[in-house]
């Protein structure tokens, strides 16, 4: 049984590496068209392909609040799906925007968790996109509390609940 799990894991990693290669080719072509420089790093994290573009002047590919980055991520996912026939959950980061955002959100989650623990009251956070909510939910779970999302997009919020 363990052997089949290892085989499944290897085939998943191979599929995700293929996704990463297809995505990198797509993004490289996009950077060439836009005449932009950037180094593309491909990895596999949390059972999904993860690509990061660094270098050059790429801030305009992120946008003020990551909206351009989100659009590029969706376009890249579509390119991968077209090439492989499988739906992609790849994550794209440009100039460490998402990694910096993750750190910021984890800090916020820790602060809110302390507030909820000391007050015993639920705390509702500002509206967040799916990526931001996932980071907060994961951090809250690691802390040992629970959280849930409520509301409709684009006003969907995380509510942190007391133990």
Considering the chains and any ligands shown, give keywords for the structure.
163 residues, alpha+beta, GMP Synthetase, Chain A, domain 3, Ribosomal Protein S8, Chain: A, domain 1, 3-stranded mixed sheet, 3-stranded antiparallel sheet, 6 strands, 18% strand, globular
Walk me through the topology.
Elements: H1 2-33, E1 39-45, E2 48-54, H2 67-84, E3 91-94, H3 97-119, E4 123-124, H4 130-143, E5 146-150, E6 157-161
Parallel strand pairs: 2-3
Antiparallel strand pairs: 1-2, 4-6, 5-6
Helix pairs in contact: 1-2, 3-4
Architecture overview:
- By secondary structure, this protein is an alpha+beta fold.
- The chain folds into 2 domains: 2-95, K homology (KH) domain (GMP Synthetase, Chain A, domain 3); 99-161, Ribosomal Protein S8, Chain: A, domain 1.
- Helix content is 53%, strand content 18%.
- The chain is built from 4 helices and 6 strands.
- The strands form 2 sheets. A 3-stranded mixed sheet has the order 1-2-3, with helices on both faces. It has a 3-stranded antiparallel sheet with strand order 4-6-5.
- β5 (146-150) and β6 form a beta hairpin.
- α3 (97-119) crosses α4 (130-143).
- The chain is globular.
- The model has no long low-confidence stretch (mean pLDDT 92).
């Amino acid at each position: 049984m363990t052997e089949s799990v290892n085989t499944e894991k290897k085939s998943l990693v191979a599929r995700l590496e293929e996704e990463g290669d297809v995505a990198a080719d797509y993004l490289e072509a996009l950077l060439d068209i836009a005449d932009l420089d950037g180094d593309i790093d491909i990895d596999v994290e949390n059972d999904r392909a993860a690509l990061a573009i660094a270098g050059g002047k790429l801030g305009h590919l992120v946008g003020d609040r990551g909206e351009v980055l989100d659009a590029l991520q969706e376009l890249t996912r579509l390119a991968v799906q077209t090439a492989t026939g499988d739906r992609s959950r790849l994550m794209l980061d440009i100039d460490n925007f998402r990694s910096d955002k993750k750190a910021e959100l984890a800090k916020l989650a820790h602060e809110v968790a302390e507030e909820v623990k000391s007050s015993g009251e639920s705390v509702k956070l500002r509206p967040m996109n799916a990526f931001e909510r996932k980071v907060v939910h994961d951090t809250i779970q690691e802390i040992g509390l629970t959280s849930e999302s409520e509301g409709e997009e684009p006003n969907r919020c995380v509510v942190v609940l007391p133990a």
